[in-house]
Amino acid sequence: MSSEIPMRVAVVGATGFQGGAVARLLAERHHRVRALTRRPAADRPPLPGAFFLGGDLGRPADVRRLFEGTTHAFVTMPLVYGVDRVEAYARNIAEAALEAGTVRLVFNSNTRIPLGPTDVPAFETRRLAEWVLRDSGVPLVVIRPPVYLDNLFSPWNGPSLVDDGVLAYPLPASTRTAWLSHRGLAEAALAALTREGLDGRTFDIGGGRALTGGELAAAFARGLGRAVRYEELDPAAFERGLAELLGPETAAGVAGIYHFMASGADPLLMADDDGVSTEVLALDPPPVEEWVSRQPWQVWSTDPSPSR
């Protein structure tokens, strides 16, 4: 179907960064968006055009209400890594989608997933969710992103980058990584929802040319107009810092991806996709330096001097 034909889309994860970016793009393109949240109205992010329902993914009746009257769905799981809980969420979503007659469900796995089994919950719970959704028979497209550029526009990266020109991230400097913005994810999701002949496909969506840490720093230097150097951040230190913001359980789940990448077990996991998403989903993200130049980096500066 054309992306111009109005859809009614159930968006799971619309109050998060990834799902929120998708919900915003859908609303911009005049599609109707329904979202489920446990947050009170005063604590929800601004999403013009989205209709929020109070509820919980763990309650089947709430998920069925979310899907009522919708034609399509986009799903990003919350930052939850317990096997039983993720499986229950996926089954509730699958059953609601089947009952609603969902034309297509696009599942965002949050991350690339290695071919073989691992002991990393961030990979294995998403692999499980994919399996549950696919096994249910709901028309499904899976998109697996690499690493988000928006992770770098954050309170744990911004200050050292703006004030000291240090880009610190828990990926080995030699690891080639296809960086993607949340907006790029949203564009891939819209294509996955609307393009014909994609049911059953899985895409390792890319962000253009894969970059080493040094190449990423050089792109940031061009975007910022100043010298930038890449610094490998110890995944354990990253996890400790994340725990202060998200709690130890969630931090361990997220950091598991970076512990795995630091092990060197699959150094190409986050690399580019050889142009598949560009060809099939028409994903054409701008160069990293262009994305960098658009961000209001000065909000992270700790230097009060006017020259900053």
Fold-level CATH name of the largest domain? Rossmann fold
CATH architecture of the largest domain: 3-Layer(aba) Sandwich
On the 0 to 100 scale, the average pLDDT is: 92
Extract low-pLDDT stretches: none
Q: Main sheet: which strands, in order across?
A: 3-2-1-4-5-6-10
SS summary, helix count: 11
Portion in beta strands? 5-15%
Tell me the distance between the termini: 49 Å
Give the number of domains.
Answer: 2
Query: What is the CATH superfamily classification of the largest domain?
Result: NAD(P)-binding Rossmann-like Domain
Overall 3D geometry?
Answer: globular
Give the biggest sheet: 7 strands, parallel
Helix-strand makeup class: alpha/beta
The helix/strand order is EHEEHEHEHEEHEEHEHEHHHH
Rg from Cα: 19 Å
Q: In total, how many beta strands? A: 11
CATH class value of the largest domain = Alpha Beta
Protein name: NmrA-like domain-containing protein
Family: Belongs to the NmrA-type oxidoreductase family.
Organism: Streptomyces venezuelae (strain ATCC 10712 / CBS 650.69 / DSM 40230 / JCM 4526 / NBRC 13096 / PD 04745)
Keywords: NADP
Keywords:
Rossmann fold; seven-stranded parallel beta sheet; two-stranded parallel ribbon; alpha/beta; 11 helices; UDP-galactose 4-epimerase, domain 1; 308 residues; globular; 2 domains
Tell me what you see in this structure:
This protein has 11 helices and 11 strands. The protein is α/β, with parallel strands linked by helices and about 300 residues long. It folds into 2 domains: about 10-145 and about 180-205, Rossmann fold (3-Layer(aba) Sandwich), CATH 3.40.50.720; about 160-175 and about 210-270 and about 285-300, UDP-galactose 4-epimerase, domain 1, CATH 3.90.25. The strands form 3 sheets. It has a 7-stranded parallel β-sheet with strand order 3-2-1-4-5-6-10, with helices on both faces. A two-stranded parallel ribbon has the order 7-9.
